[in-house]
Each structure stands twice: as structure tokens, then as C-alpha cells.
Amino acid sequence: MAKNDRPSQGEPDGAADSDNGFFGSDGPFATLLRHIDPRVMAEQSIALSKTMLDIVTGKSDLAPDSRDWRFKDEAWTKNPAYKRLAQAYLAATEAVEKMIPDDLSVENRQRAELAASIVTSAFAPTNTLMGNPAALAKTIETGGSNLTKGLAAFLDDIKNNGGLPKQVDNSSFEVGGNLAVTPGKIVLRHEMFELIHYKPSTDNVYQTPVLLIPPQINRFYFTDLAPGRSFAEYTVAQGLQYFAISWRNPQAENRDWGLDQYAEAALAAIDAIAEITGEPKVNLVGFCAGGITTAMVMGYLEAKGQDRVNSLALCVTMLDFEVDAALGAFRLPALLGVAKGKSAKAGVLSGADLGKIFTWLRPNDLVWNYWVNNYLMGEPPAAFDILAWNNDCTNMAAQLHEDFLELFEQNAIVQPGKAKVMGEPIDLGKLTCDAFVVGAVTDHLTPWKACYRASSHLGSKDLTFALSNGGHVAALVNPPGNPKAYHYMGPATAPDADTWLEQSPKMPGSWWESWNKWCALRSGKQIAAPKKLGSKAYAPICDAPGEYVKQ
User: Within 10 A of 21 (CB to CB), how many other CB atoms are there?
Assistant: First the structure.
């Protein structure tokens, strides 16, 4: 994508007020208020009054969803006062949601629903001591020590965690110690990435190697968590030659790293792998935002007439942004302008700021859950490897941020010739290699139906779609052996996602197993595993996971 001129200092246009986008005239809260019809508000107010009367007199049958963690305590069903309090909250929440008109555009509805969810989740009775029977019981039991601990945690979070409750105790995790420990070597240290060549764990390997392109906005090691929960470990155990990119965490001086530069870096990795393995083609795997980069790299190679990709896998990746997804709430010109301005001024969009955006997309689970646990119950957050990884934030270079927002705003990547990579117009419909696309059942960032829609923009004749259990990250960290794991899988030939689901069988186990078998079938014959990693031209530099992941 072409790099636009941006001011390097001073106040960027549109960024004088950092709240203009979210809280201004086009933001989610303004959208909610602007589209509430006074007549509908009056009707809902009357209906709410009647419902409240039924609640007070014990005639209401409103009940929380059995999956709602906020109302798990038995007091919500056995104590008349708490039961009525829960019903009143549910009734008020329902009234607010019904005030959102049905005829809004998809994006306006997303903004209004986001604002409504933030407001209604904030006013849940469980966020207060007296409105939370479990916290009240804990206070009596401990003589108030839970509140003392909670206050200390609250003050620490104000000082050290941007005012949000801490989600994880990451003190017991160390990258290279008990995370990212699958054996391998760094065989290329590029300005923008380190290339990991993982050590084979089988006597023979398939000819065609695999390259993982992870998202630029996260550390790569969610694909290599603890042993037994590592995509890298599992993949080499299946006899695939496996390489992975570990992106460098950009700083202000790297402001000009955009999609062009990341695509060029990925091509450098492909060149290195071809030299190391002697194979002209590679199996590409792209996760999340890395999937967008992967697709654009492939579009560039197609435009240049270079047949260098054997197969493609895109996991929890959206390519078409005109879909019903939570991120659509942020697809408005004012907010996009402010976001561009902020990152242009700083040189990067900080990982902390990016994390806050994603946090407020799920306020109940990612804010108030920890508010209750940390502050009311006085309990420390759990030590959990996925959350430790999630809190290991990285920055996004200003140019990459601008390029992604441009794709987001213009929906350019799915329009033939509109998006460019290093000056070349790309057309995903011309991609012909076999493809495997993965969505996740409860993904709130890249809904699985949007991932299925992405597959419709690929020209691949042999196209498989897999729908995994779990959310955006849990579906990717999905090792075999979990008895609760399942996935649906079938050819992505149905005209829409719902039809595909009706036609596709439900399979036990992880999609890792299905993809590895699918990839192996397309990766040539088996040959003796290399005894040494890297090559003469790409001699090992240090042990995996390398140095960039720790910066």
C-alpha cells in the first residue's frame, strides 16, 4: 500500500481531542442516543414499569441465562430480594436493548449495541458490594480483609495498569523458560523479524515446508505455549518442516513500517526457507491480522507471476469488513481519523491502548469479571498462560496502523485491484492454490461467518472450511486430547455460512489434527529430517524463541 504523508510532530489533523471519535457526534454513545425514537422510549418505559410491578409482586418469570457468571450464587434464586434485584436489572437491560431500532445500518447498530453493552454491564448489581451476595458473604467471613486486599489491588491498578483491573498473574511465566520452549534456532535476524527454524521431532519430514505468519500486533508465542499446548510442538511431531516469524516490537523510530514493509519481510522469510530446504514452494499459515498480511503477500506473488505458495491456511481472519462484527463499531470516519492521528504523532499505537479497545468490546468478561474478583472478592487474578501472553503487549507501527485502517475503512482487499502491495494491484480471486480456512464458534472479533465469507473471495478450487470450538484465541490454542474439543469441517462450496454448517459433519478433536493431515497430503513425499537447522547461508544465530520476542 502506498505510504501517505503524515505529520511527524505537532497535533495531527483531527486529533485535537482524543475523544472526538468514540464520544463525539459519530461515536457509539452518540449513535445510541441519536437513534432512540422518543416514542419507542416512552413505550419501553411503560412496558418496563409494568414489568417492574410484576417483579415486585412476584409474578415475573425473568431469570438470568444459566451461563451468566454474574448470577451463579444460589442467593439469586433462593433469596427473594436478590431474585427481584436480578430481574429488575435484566428487565432494564432488555428495555435499553429494545430501544435500538431494527432498521439501522449494520455499522450503526454495532455502535449502538456496543454503547448499550458498556452502559448496562457497568450498572450490573454484581459490580457493587451490597448487590453481590457472594462478595458480601466473603466480607462477613473474612472480617473485611477481602475489601482491604481489593482496595490495595485497585490502587495498584490505577497506578500500574491504566485504571483497569489486572486480568492475570503473570509472575510465574517466562518466555523461553516455560513458554515458547519448542526446540529450534533463529536462522535469520531481519530488521523486522527473526525467523525460527524448529527442530524436527520425527525421523522423516515432508518435503514442502510450512511458514507461520503471526499477527503483527501480538507476540508469536501463542502458537508455542507450554508443552502439550503448542501448535509448533504438535506440527513438528506430525512430520512437517516448520518455520515461524517472530515480529519485532516496533518503536517510534519504526513508524514507517507498513503493510508494504511487512509483506517484503515475509517474502524475505520465504526466500530464506527456500534456500534452507531446497524447496521452491512453502505452505503459508496466517493467523488473525497475520492472515491479512498472508493474503496480501499471496496477492502480490500472483500479480508478479511467481508460483511460490503450495497451500494457504487462514485462521480467524477477516478479509471482508462489511460484515456484522464487533469491530464494525469502530468503522466510522471520525474515530478512524483520530486513531490515525494519535499513532502518527507517537510513531506507534501502543499495545496498552490497543488492548483497551479490545477489552471494551467484551466489558462483562474482560472488565467487570476482574473487578469483582480482584476488588470485591479480594482474590488475585489467576495464573493462565493465554492471558499472560495476551498481556504481553506489543506496539503497532503508525504506517501499519494507517494501512490497516485504510483497508478497514475502504474494504479494499476484497475489491479486485483496489488494494496494492508494493505498487502491485492485487486480486484474491486469482489465487488458485488449495486453501484451508478456520473460524471459531464464539469469536467476538472475527465472527466465524465473516471468516467463511472471507473464503468466498479466494479463487481456490480446493477450499476447505473448519469451524472450531472456542473463541478468538482459545480456538487457536486448541491442542488435541481435550475431550471437549470439536470442529465442523467440509468444502467451502455452500453459498452462505448457515448452509455450510447444515451440510458439514461435526468432528471430535482439534482442527490442528485435520489441518496437519490436510497439509501433509499436499506436501510431497517424506524425506530424511535434516540433522542441522538452517544452512550455510542461514547459519543458526541463537536458540529459539530468540531475542525480538523479549524486547
Answer: 24
- Give yes or no for a contact between 325 and 318, defined as CB atoms under 8 angstroms apart: yes
What number of other Cβ atoms are within 10 A of residue 333's Cβ? Answer: 11
CA angle, 349 as apex, 346 and 355 as ends, to 5°?
A: 145
Cα–Cα distance measured from residue 27 to residue 323, given in angstroms and rounded to the nearest whole number: 19
Kindly give, in sequence order, each residue whose CB lies less than 8 Å from that of residue 175, ignoring residues fewer than 6 positions away: 219, 221, 392, 545, 549, 550
Residue with the three cell numbers 516455560: 178
CA atoms within 13 A on the CB side of 206: 24
**How far is Cα 472 from Cα 453, in angstroms, rounded to an integer?**
17
Residue with cell 441519536: 34
The three-class DSSP label of residue 195 is strand
Give the whole-angstrom CA distance, residue 328 versus residue 398: 21
Mean pLDDT by 10 residues, the chain (551 residues): 38 37 57 76 90 94 93 95 96 91 76 85 96 97 97 95 91 95 98 98 98 94 95 98 97 95 98 98 96 96 96 95 61 53 74 76 90 97 92 89 85 93 96 96 91 93 96 92 93 96 96 98 97 97 98 92
Residues involved in catalysis: 288
For cell 484474491, the residue is 428
CB-neighbour burial class of residue 481 (10 A; exposed 0-12, middle 13-18, buried 19+): exposed
As a whole number of Å, the end-to-end CA separation of the chain is: 27
**Cell numbers of 111, please?**
455502535
384 vs 442: CA distance, rounded Å: 20
Q: In whole angstroms, what is the distance from residue 223 CA to residue 477 CA?
A: 7
As given in the structure block, the three cell numbers for residue 135 are: 462478595
CA dist 29 and 122 (Å) reads 14
Full-model pTM: 0.87
- Domains of the chain (ranges; CATH) run 20-129 (no CATH), 197-242+254-320+413-531 (3.40.50.1820)
